[in-house]
Model the fold of this input.
Amino acid sequence: MTLYGYHGRILHAYLDDLRLEVETPDEAFYRTYVGGSALGMYYLLRDTPANADPLGPENTLTLALSVLTGAPISGQSRMTAVAKSPLTGAVGDSQGGGFFPAELKFAGFDAIVLHGRAPHPVYLWIKDGQAELLPAGHLWGKTTDAVEDILKEELGDPKIEVLQAGIAGENGVRYAALISMVNRANGRTGMGAVMASKNLKAVAVRGKNRPKVFDSKGLNALAKWGAKEFPESDAYGTGVLGTAEIVLSQNAVGGLPTRNWASGAYEGHEAISGHRMQETILLERDTCYACTVRCKRVVQVTEGPFTADPRFGGPEYETLSTFGSYCGIDDLAAIAHANQLCGQYGIDTISCGATIAWAMDCFKQGLITTEDTGGIDLRFGNAAAMVQMVELIARREGFGDLLADGSEAAAQRIGRGTEELVVAVKKLEMPAHMPHVKRSLGLIYAVNPFGADHQSSEHDPGYRAYPDRMAQIGLTNPQRSKEMNEAKVEFALRSQYVYSAMDTFNVCQFVFGPAWQLYDTAQMAEAIRLITGWDMTVDELMRVGQRRLNMMRAFNAREGFGKAQDTLPKKMFKALAGGRTDGMALSREEMETARDQYYAMAGWDGETGYPTCETLDSLGLDWIEV
Ligand code: SF4
Done:
């Protein structure tokens, strides 16, 4: 039987005894679990025992592509990492792009499942369908750029792609990232720490084995349509200015988190904007494999106290916010330098910047002092202190050792009221989109299985702005951004199913999506059909997303996460100061009512927040116990 879009080969590495095996699942398996996040969830639920130590050998880490990865169309070169999170204790899940995902596909595998812990540091080398584990003692303790240089030299091929755990991962920083190309990250939930805990330093890949496309002519036409449409599309700004495009608009509506979420308006917004970056330090735009959008930034700073090497790309919107407005820092060079350090050491820029901002808030309130920080003057606005903290966190030195466990764990250790200032859900620090101006996003932050995430549902303005596209996913009752009602709950849930499917088909959310993106949801289903030959509909696509979401919730239930953890941090219920959202606070009652409505719509138990057996059975998940 001819396979379209995938190889039908999943590599299992049993690291305890350095053994490699290839699994060859059938088509029904691929059509059910597809790839990306859902595929990772399948192995996590099957192979990781309850209450496993996230940094112990029992935690199963899956690096999964999908049936679309490597096909010649924009937005498909992405990979999801799934394991139990060392930061949260709940499910961990993180997507990343670049060229590594497509190259792994060309190297002959659809996913890699990592079991156990190697007796000594190793790296995995995969070329044209063959895999081997090689010693990596000489790579341990080296920055990502050095590791990539050594591997290219050692393997004799400058075109290999490398995914790696950095020094932060080796040191068990609980929000350590996986890094490829030294500037692309599977950033969130600590997957870099999990990979390093397995004594696996890196995965290097190279190959020429491109899976067949079912309808190449049709896919080519869709790709050409995208390239032609792009300059006229609402995704164009993301291409030209990167995600940094939105700094100004977020600030204008009072939605740019400032000084650890005390305000939604930052007086230094222009200095850290995508527009200013373009005028000053932007060297060029970069891209992921076969993508026409080219949203990635490459910046350069050669003079002054903070430099930035173009090899490490440039800061995204979230990074500009967390190291910038969150910390009251308007120094673009300092932010670019912190971004570089996160690439070199392998750290999630969101949790890192947000944790430093929390510490700065504690410092401002007098809850911690220079006695705690080792003499560092951790004032808001102190760029040198912020950069120094990134280094200390990566190396787990001094006060950085405490911050390396994340803001909530650090607050629990310090006490003294510092807990009141934490801005995290399920211990995952909140990204830079404020639910005060996007009400349904607050609900998603609260209920999302792996913590507060801005890429797990459509943001509220999309409902009124794109009624035709919303109708494709069954949403026909447009609402204002600042409203929260039953129609908004339905918007949150149905768009969450679509985003959940996108993280399973592993497509970029700036290219495919239900609102402003280049391709709409129906076109996404069509792309899947053209690549795989499956008669994919929007309904089946959403069901794929619903299945992945329920697998995550079932895993969390097993680990003791349910309704009690589906809450927002206390700071959300305190009034903001300044800008368009001056005086605004979220309402607990409103959020709790929305949460109960959401559980009922999702088919989850209203008392516990767990998926019911009926819901799991209806999704073909009767093998999962809750
Ligand atoms: S839109 Fe940007 S992040 Fe997405 S695939 Fe294209 S270049 Fe990569």
